[in-house]
Specification:
Layout: E1 3-8, H1 12-24, E2 30-36, H2 47-52, H3 61-64, E3 71-74, E4 76-81, E5 86-90, E6 96-99, E7 102-105, E8 109-111, H4 119-122, H5 129-144, E9 148-153, H6 157-169, E10 173-178, H7 189-202, E11 205-207, E12 212-215, E13 219-222, E14 227-229, E15 232-235, E16 239-241, H8 244-248, E17 258-259, E18 272-274, E19 279-280, H9 293-312, E20 316-317, E21 325-329, E22 335-340, E23 346-352, H10 354-372, E24 398-399
Parallel strand pairs: 1-2, 1-7, 2-3, 7-18, 9-10, 9-15, 10-11, 17-19, 20-24
Antiparallel strand pairs: 4-5, 5-6, 8-16, 12-13, 13-14, 21-22, 22-23
Length: 400
Amino acid sequence: MKHRIVVLGAGYAGAYVAGNLVRRLSPADTEITVVNAEPSFVQRLQLHRLAAGQKIDAPQLTDVFAGTGIHVRLARVTSIDPDRQVVALADADGGGELSYDTLLYTLGSHIADHGVPGVATHAFNVASHRAALRLRDRLDSLSSQGGGNVLVVGDGLTGIETATEIAESRPELSVVLIARGELGARLSAGARGHLRQACDRLGVTVLEHSSVDAVEATHVRCADGSVLASDATVWTAGFAVHPIAASSGIEVTANGQIIVDRTMRSVSHPNVYAAGDSVWAIGDNGQPLPMSCASAGYTGKQAMQAIIGRLTGGKVANVKLGYAGNHISLGRQDGILQAVDSKAQAKPKYLGGRKAARIKKAIVRMSLWTVSHPTFGMPVRSRRVAAAPARHASAEKVVA
């Protein structure tokens, strides 16, 4: 009987790992199924562009995995039973259960409302393809009316990119960026100055040291009692993971991320692995990796190496778990590349302007190519799965 590998989620981590597993494991021994709610790959790095009215590529998963032998199951995950090793699914045909021998959990994250009233009802976001399209429709409506007020709540990377992209693409709209602290607080002094200049150039109004206590249909209420009119409130104040892992009994952190060892294997269920935003992974600097595309790449590669090593009885290589810095787009022709030190603190030097924008564009393009070509032109010499893979072994060979 073939060893059944099920990958939950086909984002930057899941699609990459699935494609590389099918290259490296013998098809005679393994069966790989990818479960995803959307039929296409969602470029989450580009959803702010989609919302602003631009076109982005969305390759169909059936095309991405065509000819690989990977099964694509279009369904929504409703629960996991790690003791029975089954996943419950819901789809157009009513769903059902999917059994696994090895599970890779890469369901990603969604918007975090932090308990603020009205976010779920009245706010827009760019955390999913559907949400970005909903925001685009609203912005289209405002533009056709000649203008309107857009409030972007949250000054993290998503908030900054969303505010500047909308301001550049739709100059008829008035864009306000609400920052809880100082704008770009995690950046170096020079990068913060560059960011301010970009906001000024694009006409983005920045409200610093402000927080929103409630979102309503036509305005937001701030903690200081002020009320700001809004025709479209975009919530970018952080992300949260789905509660499925926590409800399944898999050991998670307080925020629901799966706790893993150095190889991305669950500390409570040895045949469950996690990568991407769903995992609580400690980087080589001793700090948790941030939710990001880069972290998805590192954790996905580590999970892939661990699954292959353990199933084939080989060594499990340690993949670098780093955090090099931030790449931020400020519209189409401007950007910031901010490197960080070993403690994830911003280095004094940064790169800004058109060159930074071109590098960011190249990074995004490469990320899409990697996912769209997950097998990198198969075949690669396949490795046979061991007759009795040591999924529950306490001792193993790990090589740096």
